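User: Here's a chain of 225 residues. Predict its fold as C-alpha coordinates.
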Amino acid sequence: MTIIAGFSSSRQGSAPLNLAAQLARTTGEKIIAAVVVERALPAGVDPIEDEYRGFLASRAGASLERVVDQVRGDLDISTTVHHSSSISQGLMELVGQHGADVVVVGSSSSGLLGRIALGSVTARLVHTSKVPVALAPRGYPASPVPLQRLTVAYGGAADAVGLIATSAELAKQWKVQLRIASFTVPPLTMFGGSIERSTKRRPYESSSRKVETTKRRRRCTARRP
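Assistant: Prediction complete.
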Protein backbone atom coordinates (compact mmCIF):
# COMPACT_ATOMS: atom_id res chain seq x y z
CA MET A 1 0.00 0.00 0.00
CA THR A 2 0.98 3.64 -0.36
CA ILE A 3 0.86 6.88 1.61
CA ILE A 4 0.40 10.09 -0.38
CA ALA A 5 1.98 13.19 1.19
CA GLY A 6 0.39 16.11 -0.63
CA PHE A 7 1.77 19.59 -1.28
CA SER A 8 0.74 22.62 -3.29
CA SER A 9 3.08 24.26 -5.80
CA SER A 10 3.53 27.22 -3.43
CA ARG A 11 4.13 25.40 -0.13
CA GLN A 12 6.46 22.50 0.55
CA GLY A 13 6.88 22.61 4.31
CA SER A 14 8.09 19.42 5.95
CA ALA A 15 5.15 18.84 8.34
CA PRO A 16 3.07 16.55 6.05
CA LEU A 17 6.12 14.50 5.14
CA ASN A 18 7.18 14.22 8.80
CA LEU A 19 3.79 12.76 9.71
CA ALA A 20 3.77 10.52 6.63
CA ALA A 21 7.20 9.22 7.67
CA GLN A 22 5.89 8.28 11.12
CA LEU A 23 2.96 6.47 9.52
CA ALA A 24 5.34 4.64 7.17
CA ARG A 25 7.54 3.56 10.08
CA THR A 26 4.42 2.18 11.74
CA THR A 27 2.89 0.41 8.72
CA GLY A 28 5.91 -0.33 6.53
CA GLU A 29 4.26 1.39 3.57
CA LYS A 30 6.00 3.45 0.94
CA ILE A 31 5.49 7.21 0.57
CA ILE A 32 4.83 9.26 -2.54
CA ALA A 33 5.52 12.96 -1.91
CA ALA A 34 3.39 14.74 -4.47
CA VAL A 35 3.19 18.36 -5.59
CA VAL A 36 -0.06 19.24 -7.33
CA VAL A 37 0.18 22.11 -9.80
CA GLU A 38 -3.20 23.64 -10.57
CA ARG A 39 -3.99 24.49 -14.18
CA ALA A 40 -7.21 25.99 -15.48
CA LEU A 41 -6.64 24.99 -19.12
CA PRO A 42 -5.60 21.63 -20.60
CA ALA A 43 -2.02 21.40 -21.84
CA GLY A 44 -1.52 22.67 -25.38
CA VAL A 45 -4.29 25.28 -25.34
CA ASP A 46 -2.22 28.28 -24.24
CA PRO A 47 1.60 28.16 -24.79
CA ILE A 48 2.20 30.94 -22.26
CA GLU A 49 0.16 29.12 -19.63
CA ASP A 50 2.04 25.91 -20.39
CA GLU A 51 5.39 27.67 -19.96
CA TYR A 52 4.37 29.23 -16.66
CA ARG A 53 2.97 25.95 -15.27
CA GLY A 54 6.14 24.20 -16.37
CA PHE A 55 8.21 26.76 -14.47
CA LEU A 56 6.07 26.26 -11.34
CA ALA A 57 6.37 22.49 -11.62
CA SER A 58 10.15 22.63 -12.00
CA ARG A 59 10.62 24.94 -9.04
CA ALA A 60 8.17 23.06 -6.79
CA GLY A 61 9.69 19.69 -7.71
CA ALA A 62 13.21 20.86 -6.85
CA SER A 63 12.00 22.28 -3.53
CA LEU A 64 10.19 19.04 -2.70
CA GLU A 65 13.31 16.99 -3.42
CA ARG A 66 15.23 19.04 -0.85
CA VAL A 67 12.54 18.39 1.77
CA VAL A 68 12.51 14.67 1.01
CA ASP A 69 16.30 14.44 1.26
CA GLN A 70 16.06 15.70 4.85
CA VAL A 71 13.52 13.02 5.83
CA ARG A 72 14.21 9.99 3.63
CA GLY A 73 16.68 8.01 5.75
CA ASP A 74 15.78 4.33 5.36
CA LEU A 75 12.25 5.04 4.11
CA ASP A 76 10.96 4.31 0.60
CA ILE A 77 10.01 7.82 -0.59
CA SER A 78 9.51 8.89 -4.19
CA THR A 79 8.41 12.26 -5.56
CA THR A 80 6.07 13.30 -8.34
CA VAL A 81 4.66 16.49 -9.82
CA HIS A 82 1.03 16.17 -10.90
CA HIS A 83 -1.07 18.66 -12.89
CA SER A 84 -4.78 18.93 -12.16
CA SER A 85 -7.69 21.37 -12.04
CA SER A 86 -7.41 21.59 -8.23
CA ILE A 87 -5.18 20.29 -5.45
CA SER A 88 -7.89 18.12 -3.88
CA GLN A 89 -8.85 16.66 -7.26
CA GLY A 90 -5.20 16.03 -8.09
CA LEU A 91 -4.60 14.17 -4.83
CA MET A 92 -7.62 11.94 -5.46
CA GLU A 93 -6.30 11.22 -8.96
CA LEU A 94 -2.99 10.13 -7.44
CA VAL A 95 -4.82 7.96 -4.89
CA GLY A 96 -6.50 6.14 -7.78
CA GLN A 97 -3.31 5.79 -9.80
CA HIS A 98 -1.21 4.40 -6.96
CA GLY A 99 -3.81 2.57 -4.86
CA ALA A 100 -3.02 4.73 -1.84
CA ASP A 101 -4.89 4.10 1.40
CA VAL A 102 -4.21 7.43 3.16
CA VAL A 103 -3.45 11.03 2.19
CA VAL A 104 -1.38 13.27 4.47
CA VAL A 105 -1.60 17.06 4.13
CA GLY A 106 -0.57 20.02 6.25
CA SER A 107 -2.53 22.55 8.24
CA SER A 108 -3.51 25.91 6.84
CA SER A 109 -0.80 28.55 7.15
CA SER A 110 -3.26 30.58 9.23
CA GLY A 111 -3.14 27.99 12.03
CA LEU A 112 -1.08 28.27 15.20
CA LEU A 113 2.08 26.24 15.61
CA GLY A 114 1.26 22.78 16.88
CA ARG A 115 -2.41 23.16 15.95
CA ILE A 116 -4.61 22.27 12.98
CA ALA A 117 -6.56 24.81 10.96
CA LEU A 118 -8.59 23.88 7.89
CA GLY A 119 -8.07 25.97 4.79
CA SER A 120 -10.12 25.86 1.59
CA VAL A 121 -8.11 22.93 0.20
CA THR A 122 -8.03 20.78 3.35
CA ALA A 123 -11.70 21.44 4.12
CA ARG A 124 -12.69 20.28 0.64
CA LEU A 125 -10.39 17.28 0.89
CA VAL A 126 -11.66 15.95 4.23
CA HIS A 127 -15.26 16.17 3.00
CA THR A 128 -14.73 14.55 -0.42
CA SER A 129 -11.82 12.12 -0.01
CA LYS A 130 -12.50 8.43 -0.62
CA VAL A 131 -9.63 7.44 1.71
CA PRO A 132 -8.65 8.60 5.21
CA VAL A 133 -6.99 12.03 5.41
CA ALA A 134 -4.30 12.71 8.03
CA LEU A 135 -3.74 16.37 8.91
CA ALA A 136 -0.31 17.33 10.19
CA PRO A 137 -0.37 20.17 12.75
CA ARG A 138 1.51 23.26 11.64
CA GLY A 139 5.24 22.79 12.27
CA TYR A 140 4.87 19.06 13.01
CA PRO A 141 8.43 17.87 13.77
CA ALA A 142 10.25 14.84 12.42
CA SER A 143 10.49 11.81 14.73
CA PRO A 144 12.23 8.45 14.33
CA VAL A 145 9.64 6.84 16.61
CA PRO A 146 6.65 5.04 15.05
CA LEU A 147 3.14 5.87 16.19
CA GLN A 148 2.33 4.47 19.63
CA ARG A 149 -1.35 5.20 20.10
CA LEU A 150 -4.51 5.96 18.12
CA THR A 151 -7.05 8.21 19.83
CA VAL A 152 -10.69 8.27 18.77
CA ALA A 153 -12.86 11.26 19.69
CA TYR A 154 -16.20 9.67 20.58
CA GLY A 155 -19.43 11.62 20.60
CA GLY A 156 -22.04 8.88 21.01
CA ALA A 157 -23.81 9.27 17.68
CA ALA A 158 -20.48 8.87 15.87
CA ASP A 159 -20.59 5.11 16.41
CA ALA A 160 -23.59 4.94 14.08
CA VAL A 161 -21.13 5.19 11.18
CA GLY A 162 -18.81 2.56 12.62
CA LEU A 163 -16.14 4.93 13.93
CA ILE A 164 -15.11 2.76 16.88
CA ALA A 165 -15.09 -0.49 14.90
CA THR A 166 -13.08 1.06 12.08
CA SER A 167 -10.60 2.62 14.48
CA ALA A 168 -10.20 -0.66 16.36
CA GLU A 169 -9.38 -2.45 13.12
CA LEU A 170 -6.90 0.27 12.17
CA ALA A 171 -5.21 0.07 15.58
CA LYS A 172 -4.95 -3.69 15.14
CA GLN A 173 -3.33 -3.31 11.73
CA TRP A 174 -0.89 -0.71 13.03
CA LYS A 175 -0.22 -2.67 16.24
CA VAL A 176 -0.82 0.41 18.40
CA GLN A 177 -2.88 1.12 21.50
CA LEU A 178 -6.43 2.39 20.94
CA ARG A 179 -7.72 5.15 23.23
CA ILE A 180 -11.33 6.31 23.17
CA ALA A 181 -11.77 9.90 24.37
CA SER A 182 -15.09 11.59 25.08
CA PHE A 183 -15.35 15.30 25.80
CA THR A 184 -17.99 17.29 27.65
CA VAL A 185 -18.26 21.06 27.92
CA PRO A 186 -19.65 22.25 31.26
CA PRO A 187 -22.34 24.94 31.04
CA LEU A 188 -21.35 28.53 31.72
CA THR A 189 -22.39 29.90 35.10
CA MET A 190 -24.66 32.86 34.50
CA PHE A 191 -24.49 36.07 36.52
CA GLY A 192 -21.91 34.74 38.97
CA GLY A 193 -24.17 31.93 40.19
CA SER A 194 -23.09 28.36 40.87
CA ILE A 195 -24.10 24.92 39.64
CA GLU A 196 -24.50 21.99 41.96
CA ARG A 197 -21.50 19.62 41.75
CA SER A 198 -23.69 16.59 40.98
CA THR A 199 -25.23 18.46 38.05
CA LYS A 200 -21.78 19.23 36.64
CA ARG A 201 -20.87 15.56 36.70
CA ARG A 202 -23.98 14.27 34.90
CA PRO A 203 -22.79 14.93 31.31
CA TYR A 204 -19.41 13.40 32.14
CA GLU A 205 -20.93 10.31 33.77
CA SER A 206 -23.39 9.84 30.91
CA SER A 207 -20.59 10.10 28.37
CA SER A 208 -18.43 7.67 30.35
CA ARG A 209 -21.25 5.11 30.44
CA LYS A 210 -21.64 5.36 26.67
CA VAL A 211 -17.93 4.79 26.15
CA GLU A 212 -17.88 1.78 28.48
CA THR A 213 -20.95 0.31 26.75
CA THR A 214 -19.27 0.68 23.38
CA LYS A 215 -16.07 -0.96 24.63
CA ARG A 216 -18.05 -3.93 26.05
CA ARG A 217 -19.84 -4.36 22.74
CA ARG A 218 -16.53 -4.38 20.92
CA ARG A 219 -15.12 -7.01 23.31
CA CYS A 220 -18.19 -9.21 22.90
CA THR A 221 -18.00 -8.94 19.11
CA ALA A 222 -14.31 -9.85 19.16
CA ARG A 223 -15.03 -13.03 21.18
CA ARG A 224 -17.61 -14.37 18.74
CA PRO A 225 -16.34 -17.26 16.60
